[in-house]
Amino acid sequence: MRCEDDTPSAVPGSIELQDLNGDRIAEAWGKESSTDCYGTTAEAFALPAKDGKGNWTKLLDQTGIADVKAAKHNGWPDIEVGGPGMGPFPVCRWNGKKYALTK
């Protein structure tokens, strides 16, 4: 995720920390916005987490708006990938090793 856009629609990337799986180690949401890069959705996000060795590993990288859901699978919350319109929107679910889109 890295948009190279200098138009007025571009919002530089930001990082927010959040412990999603309750292990007291925060994951990092990376978010940025641009209609030139991401179309009408205008937003993209990435979710990296530290592995057991302290290295960052990307768990999820999507174009859309992340919406963390209450439902959990294998200790991790489902993440809906929203966008314009009424939905339904795709949901990413932790399968024990990675986030995967559900149908």
Describe what you observe in this structure.
- The model has no long low-confidence stretch (mean pLDDT 89).
- This protein starts with 10 loop residues before the first strand and ends with a strand.
- It has a four-stranded antiparallel β-sheet with strand order 1-2-3-4. Strands 5-6-7-8 form a four-stranded antiparallel β-sheet, with no helix packed on it.
- The protein is globular, with a radius of gyration of 14 Å.
- Helix content is 4%, strand content 52%.
- The protein contains one helix and eight strands.
- The longest helix has 4 residues, at 35-38.
- With 103 residues, it is mostly beta strands.
- It has one domain (11-101).
- Strand 1 (11-18) and strand 2 form a beta hairpin.
- Let me know the average pLDDT: 89
Total helices: the number is 1
Helix content: under 10%
Low-confidence stretches: none
- Give the overall silhouette: globular
Query: Sheet with the most strands?
Result: 4 strands, antiparallel
Oligomerization category of the chains in this entry: single chain
What fraction strand? over 45%
H-E string: EEHEEEEEE
Number of strands: 8
N-C termini distance: 24 Å
Integer count of domains = 1
- The Cα radius of gyration reads 14 Å
Spatial order of the strands forming the largest sheet: 1-2-3-4
Secondary-structure content class: mainly beta
